[in-house]
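Hi D.,

Good news: the full-assembly prediction came through. Inputs first.
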Amino acid sequence: MKNKAAKVLAMALSAAMVLGTVPAFAEDGGDKQKVVYWAQWSENETQAEVLKDAIARFEENNPEYTVEVNWAGREVRDIMRTSIDSGTVIDIIESGYDRILGQLGEDYLIDLTEYVAGTDFEASISEGMASFAKGFTSTGDSWYYIPAQPFVGTIFYNKAIFREAGIEALPTTWAEFMDCCQKIVDAGYAPMTIDDAYMECLYTAYLGMIMGTDSIEEMMNDSASPLWDDPAVAQMAKDFGEMVEKGYFAEGTGSFVFPAAQNTEFAMGTTAMYYNGSWLPNEVADITGDEFEWGAMFFPAPEGATEDYTTYTTGCQFYAVPKTAENVEGAVKLIEEFTSLQTQTDLLEKCQCIPVINGLELPESLADCGTLMETATKAVPWCYASTISAEVKAVSNASFAKLLSGEIDADGFVQEIADQMN
Amino acid sequence: MKASVRICEAQKRHNTEQFGAMGLKSPIVFTDGNGGVKVKHRERLFMAGYLGPAVLCFLIIFAYPLIRTILMSFFVIPGISSPVSEWKFAGLDNYIGMFRNGVFLASLNNIWRIWLIGGALTLAIALFYAVILASGVKGKKFWRSAIYLPNTVNAVALATMWLQYVFQNKFGLLKTLFTSLGWTSLAKINWTSPKYLFWGMLLSYVFGSVGYFMLIFLAGIERIPSDLYESARIDGAGAWVQFTRITFPLIRDVFRTALTLWTIGAVNFFTWAKMFSTRISTITVTPVYFLYDKVFGGSGTASAIDAGGGAAVGVMIAVIVLIVHVAINRLLKEEVYEY
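Then the structure:
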């Protein structure tokens, strides 16, 4: 009896297993062409929710296509090149501009210029974004990289604290910045803080204003570069060291492991300024609520600055189509949907993302970022460098953290850098 | 006669199938001097049939990457999956470069401290707990589960809990606890400051590891016959003597295994270092963290990819594990006690 029951059960399970594969065949979509999209978002992120809606619209409007998404998250950067090398079919890859440029570049990607010609995308993309993306190509006028989500590196500030401290004009020079910090201290707030994840942005922003992008690119990729002996390095250490001495950094700065500073200091309204990217308002929206008064400013020009005060750091996530793509036309159509007015509006409203197309008004939290982009006289890459070597970053970050935490002073910083940079 | 041969043949076939299905050797009992070679051949086929998939898997999953990584370590390679035609021979430059590289040397120093100090703390605490639990303490199951609990939590979640709650400088657990006890100097310690970050990381890693090793030791101690302890107690031996003369000598092989496991875990230290420093820093860098940044470009602004250098780091990690393993085997020689 038991044996019979076991046989019946085994047959039922086998049948279920076989039948279970049937929907898979049915879902294969018959004549439908598949577009494979590897996203840099995790499936539970708000951006992914917006893009899912965009994909649904795309599939409805283009019934000949079906979209397969790999919600790979930020780690897509670690696997995209090896996946393409191993022959994995990817029609759209999405990642930070530095990763797409550094790991893929034109050798791996299709020139989409002829596909893009005459599309809604080409008509609506903002000029700034178009020149940013085209500027990285060998011809300077090709569409290898499609802007997905631009961002601005800036000192965010709490307008309410600035108002309370009586600061009427934003600081444009380092001296004015120090005065501004003093007023904030007098008003009973900590002027500034930073998380470990963005420390390199702070010192490269300072040094970049004096030394320019080429020098920062060189020194951040070559620990033996004589540029590390440039007086600007000692000046930077002295100025930040002075900020520490005067109590212009929130207590614990130099010790904050991301996102401690942004969540418990800046978003909670106890610290007035925090260096970050324009994704910040979205990241801390649950903490700040709607009442938070967001401000963003250019980096104050230190003494000896060669760059204009109106220089700002920027970057962008890119979409790109690998040479191994099997459905380029479908990929370009899907990118069109991603950059359409509807999707860009959704990204703006639900995720506070800066749009890549013209004609959309930024929310209050990003209004100042928009002003920076409009009034800037020069845009430079995030951290003033397209790549930063692990060797340099490991030493400079550790020493800068010690400087900000007060463990070493400016002279100690210069000494550590001299000792450890090979 | 013929019928008996047929029966014998049939039985031989049957047994061979039976034994074969069980993955055992074919029944040699049926062989004679002349037929022995034939059965040996069949044995080889059985062995090949059963071992083949495992050997193939080993070759594909372990041997091929191992050999390729060793080869890669002698070349300059732009990407981990770059075709061999793009490799440029560099001889020993990758290795020499690493030993002149301050960050790699810092990573070795960190890993040495993690292995030595973290290992001493983890194994000592784990052994201490195991001895207490094996002594017949009340609520043994509860305590065993409680001590093992951190191992069931994902390392990322555990590290986040330590960073954002336990070590939090204003309202964190340690700050509150030490303040309420009046231990102001301890309460003042900022565990995530550059000065203490490494020690904070090590402390939390030890916390997350003790339970695992406690279970290993406990399993070793529980197999020691209780009459040995009874006899020792009758002879007047105290707890310390029982531990040093009975428990520790009889779990020596377990200790050796635990030490090897700790070494492998410590040398491959990555998640905790990554969690305690969002961007690579000499304070917490370990060889695997350094390797990750070299091969994949790291976090934040990407670093230029150096797959050959990363491969050299990988080979050196493997060599370190081998050296430590050999040293452990030499120092803690296997001694078989019968009990």
